[in-house]
């Protein structure tokens, strides 16, 4: 028996360190949390506790496959890797010769968040080709752009320091379902007297445990933030020294906040005026306060504006000066050398960019259409907005589709060639979290199962098949890690491949005993928090545009035991999550003649799904909610491919439907 240190590769805040026990036959037989990791502390979520069920699942794709039936029929035959590479590269060459390189589109997202297999050799390969580029915008594009405009960087506070917080505001995030290690930190703070406030349209597990819960109407968060600012300024609950030194154009912000007295904020948000005043005073009187923001609010058409309004609040109270104070959406900008990792010096031309959130429309372009698509780390037929239109595009006979996958996903059904992909236990990688501050090395615990290959090994074969002889295509994964870490950024000082091999995880370098990025200044042009947008306008509340034909706001938050379309084929997790439900308020159910347990049709002009109804207070009036189980239900048939106000992000939550009882 031997023990290997691995990293959870999935699109999750916690990015856990795992200990994997491997027997004498080279099979992984046990997985558990790494007790030595300062955040993981020996515990894994139930999903990843079942990770070996995924690695050794009988339905895993282990050999290259070629389509034999019609698209969508799911009929394939096994072929060799040689035939697969020859066929794919032949199709690349044919497509480029006939239509040009922009007719080729790589499509990937967060199937693994290891930095090498998320994006390295693939960027070199498609960059050399001159293929269309992909804007990867599903997750936090609007929020990231908002942080760049407000702080000058995508950084927040250290989540470990929330143990010192006296007020934690979970704004649009179900911590108990999606960020379990944050919960343990918060609970430790609560034992010392900290208060937990939850702001969310969804009365979820976290909301039920809060000291104060504010049910907000979806898409109105900036109105609440401005209402809080109004009270802070009016009642002089602001830190004048910090505001004068680190908040740009405060007079203009003061004018804007004056437009949102608590009675107006209450009318917009649906939150009682008394609760808004209570929260504002609590926030203004507690310097060790943190706003822990989730991704949900920035999945609206006004998502960037809403994140900006929240991010401004800590500057008013000077929370950034206190250990345990500040704001956290993502910790992302560590100074990695992505230019070297992507080998941008070999990229050809200036190809067009296609937004992954608008792939439904892109697959139907009349001018310069996409004729070949290579999908990896993603399942666009399941996760992309406007699913029906996506599938129509994938069914095009003039579209050649290659999918590199672990399981027969929705997208695989429409593939011409399917390639078998490795899991995290079978490949070398380096990981950052977008929440905690540890960089981690993932070394393979087992040999690749069957004939599965990592993304990087596959792209090396494809590069050879295309005749690309640039030296960068011969770089090993170890070389790639060294190139990524070849940076003079202070956060990465002393963090090398060799150091990671020895220690397995290393926290980024911080000044002093705590990571306090904005105690002194901000990396904006003025060195301050920016309250004006790039177009010169001051942060504001812009109502989302509803659809009078469809009166109910449909929200699809994350399920606890699944991760988008991942883990949906694990039997134990299916039993824990149970069948998908639609939560509906009695005020909306009664006039529609809907009773608890009825099967209903959720529909709009883009598509429909059927779900059983659970009537109660989980959702507010005018809002219906279904935690997503994309393996079972294509909820994104109802979502549009409209994009956010900034960042070009997906607007999954600006989605209006109606509901009727099934006959």
Please describe the structure with a list of short key phrases separated by commas or semicolons.
663 residues; alpha/beta; Phosphorylase Kinase, domain 1; Rossmann fold; Dimethylsulfoxide Reductase, domain 2; six-stranded mixed beta sheet; 17% strand; globular
Residue-averaged pLDDT: 95
Q: Structural class of the secondary elements?
A: alpha/beta
Largest sheet: 6 strands, mixed
Q: Would you give the CATH topology of the largest domain?
A: Rossmann fold
Q: Gyration radius, to the nearest Å?
A: 25 Å
* Separation, N- and C-terminal Cα atoms: 58 Å
Approximate helicity band: 25-40%
Beta-strand proportion: 15-25%
* Largest sheet: spatial strand order: 5-4-16-15-14-6
Q: How many helical stretches?
A: 24
Query: How many separate structural domains?
Result: 4
Name the CATH architecture of the largest domain. Answer: 3-Layer(aba) Sandwich
Shape: globular
Instruction: Report the count of strand segments.
Output: 25
| CATH C-level class of the largest domain | Alpha Beta
| Low confidence ranges | none
Helices and strands in order, then pairings?
Layout: E1 2-7, E2 17-22, E3 28-33, H1 46-49, H2 51-55, E4 65-67, E5 76-78, H3 81-99, E6 104-108, H4 115-118, H5 121-129, E7 133-135, H6 141-150, E8 167-171, H7 175-178, H8 180-191, E9 195-199, H9 205-208, E10 212-214, H10 221-234, H11 240-246, H12 250-258, H13 262-269, H14 273-284, E11 289-293, H15 303-317, E12 326-328, H16 338-342, E13 353-355, H17 359-362, E14 372-376, H18 380-383, H19 387-394, E15 400-405, E16 417-420, E17 429-432, E18 438-442, H20 455-466, H21 477-484, H22 497-503, E19 505-507, E20 552-555, H23 571-577, E21 582-584, H24 586-589, E22 599-603, E23 608-615, E24 623-625, E25 656-661
Parallel strand pairs: 6-14, 7-13, 8-9, 8-11, 9-10, 11-12, 14-15, 15-16, 20-24, 21-23
Antiparallel strand pairs: 1-2, 2-3, 4-5, 4-16, 17-18, 18-19, 20-25, 22-23, 22-25
């Amino acid at each position: 028996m031997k023990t290997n240190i691995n990293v959870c590769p999935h699109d999750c805040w916690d990015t856990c360190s795992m200990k994997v026990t491997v027997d004498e036959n080279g099979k992984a037989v046990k997985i558990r949390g790494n007790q030595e990791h300062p955040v993981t502390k020996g515990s894994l979520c139930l999903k990843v506790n079942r990770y070996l069920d995924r690695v050794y699942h009988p339905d895993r794709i282990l050999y290259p496959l070629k389509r034999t039936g019609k698209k969508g029929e799911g009929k394939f035959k096994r072929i060799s890797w040689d035939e697969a590479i020859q066929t794919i590269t032949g199709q690349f060459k044919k497509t480029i010769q006939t239509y040009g390189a922009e007719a080729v589109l790589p499509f990937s997202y967060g199937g693994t968040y290891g930095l090498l297999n998320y994006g390295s050799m693939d960027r070199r390969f498609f960059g050399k080709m001159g293929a269309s580029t992909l804007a990867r915008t599903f997750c936090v594009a609007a929020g990231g752009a908002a942080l760049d405009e407000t702080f000058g960087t995508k950084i927040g506070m250290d989540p470990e320091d929330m143990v010192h917080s006296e007020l934690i505001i979970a704004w649009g995030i179900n911590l108990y379902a999606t960020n379990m290690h944050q919960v343990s930190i918060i609970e430790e703070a609560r034992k010392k007297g900290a208060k937990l406030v939850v702001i969310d349209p969804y009365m979820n597990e976290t909301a039920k445990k809060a000291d104060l819960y504010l049910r907000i109407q979806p898409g109105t968060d900036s109105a609440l933030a401005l209402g809080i600012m109004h009270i802070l300024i009016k009642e002089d609950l602001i830190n004048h020294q910090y505001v004068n030194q680190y908040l740009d154009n405060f007079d203009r912000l003061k004018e804007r906040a004056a437009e949102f007295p608590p009675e107006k904020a209450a009318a917009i948000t649906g939150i009682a005026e008394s609760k808004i005043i209570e929260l504002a005073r609590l926030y203004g009187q507690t310097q060790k306060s943190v706003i822990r923001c989730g991704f949900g609010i920035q999945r609206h058409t006004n998502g960037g504006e809403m994140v900006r309004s929240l991010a401004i609040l800590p500057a008013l109270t000077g929370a950034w000066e206190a250990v345990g104070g500040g704001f956290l959406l993502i910790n992302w900008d560590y100074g990695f050398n992505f230019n070297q990792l992507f080998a941008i010096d070999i990229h050809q031309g200036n190809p067009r960019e296609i937004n992954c959130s608008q792939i439904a429309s892109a697959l139907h372009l009349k001018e310069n259409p996409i004729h070949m698509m290579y999908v990896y780390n993603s399942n666009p037929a399941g996760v992309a907005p406007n699913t029906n239109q996506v599938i129509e595009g994938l069914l095009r006979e003039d579209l050649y589709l290659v999918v590199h996958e672990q399981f027969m996903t929705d997208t695989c059904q429409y593939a011409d060639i399917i390639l078998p992909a490795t899991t995290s236990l079978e490949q070398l990688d380096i990981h950052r979290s977008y929440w905690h501050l540890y960089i981690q090395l993932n070394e393979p615990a087992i040999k690749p199962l069957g004939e599965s290959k990592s993304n990087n090994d596959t792209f090396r074969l494809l590069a050879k098949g295309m005749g690309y002889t640039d030296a960068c295509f011969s770089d090993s994964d170890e070389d790639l890690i060294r190139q990524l870490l070849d940076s003079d950024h202070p956060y990465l000082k002393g963090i090398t491949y060799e150091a990671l091999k020895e220690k397995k995880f290393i926290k980024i370098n911080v000044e002093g005993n705590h990571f306090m990025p904005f105690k002194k200044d901000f990396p904006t042009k003025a060195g301050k928090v920016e309250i004006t947008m790039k177009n010169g306008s001051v942060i504001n509340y812009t109502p989302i545009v509803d659809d009078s034909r469809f009166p109910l706001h449909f929200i699809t938050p994350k399920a606890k035991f699944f991760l988008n379309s991942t883990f949906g084929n694990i039997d134990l997790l299916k039993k824990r999550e149970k069948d998908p439900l639609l939560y509906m308020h009695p005020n909306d159910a009664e006039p529609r003649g809907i009773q608890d347990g009825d099967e209903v049709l959720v529909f709009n002009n883009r598509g429909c799904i059927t779900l059983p109804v659970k009537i109660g207070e989980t959702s507010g009036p005018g809002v219906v909610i279904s935690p997503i189980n994309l393996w079972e239900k294509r909820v994104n048939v109802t979502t549009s491919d409209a994009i956010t106000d900034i960042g070009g992000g997906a607007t999954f939550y600006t989605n209006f439907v109606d509901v009727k009882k099934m006959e």
